[in-house]
Amino acid sequence: MTSSKIHISPSVKPSLHAIMYMFHHTFLPPNVPQEDDFDPQNKDTLLCTISDALQRFKAAARCDQQATIEPIRIMIEDLRSVREDLGAISEANLERALKKLSKKGGVMPLYIRAQNAGVIISKASNGICFETFELSPDNESVITTKGRLRRSFPASACVVYQVTFNEDGFQATLAQTIAKMSHQATPDMQPKVRKARQQHNDM
What we know:
- Pfam families: DUF6606.
- By secondary structure, the chain is of the alpha+beta class.
- It is built from seven helices and six strands; from the N terminus they run ααααβββαβααββ.
């Protein structure tokens, strides 16, 4: 599966809609949209803006601080690089990113929207670490919790030994599976809310 990638220059002024999207998803104001506002173009604008801000921050930081900032910027760029135009994960791009991570190390976050899940892949001393977690809590937990809703991340983690990760076909199969999961929604994985006596995905 291949797809052209959206490229947004930091010099291009974002639309008001994109600015409001970034505002809602960065500062989390009290009156956030009451419906799913997902927009692949706006999401890419947000990631591009974050990457550009980190680049500028790095340029203004002391030399000893730059080594901390740069891996974060690369992580954001990796998150962008594996996405397709509609927000799903590109199988080919993810496979390339996995090969790079295996050789050079680093941390790669993945947003698997159709499964309401996030995955953080990183190189550990004894292999490749996979950390998974649920992204959006269900409405019932949010509404019935007194005070703040406390959540722990990741929900689970495992390590695949380096020799296994580098076996022929392993990374290709993994990339294919994750890419498929990113655009094929699984109803049981989405938070549910009851409206008009029917169950709906709680987005």
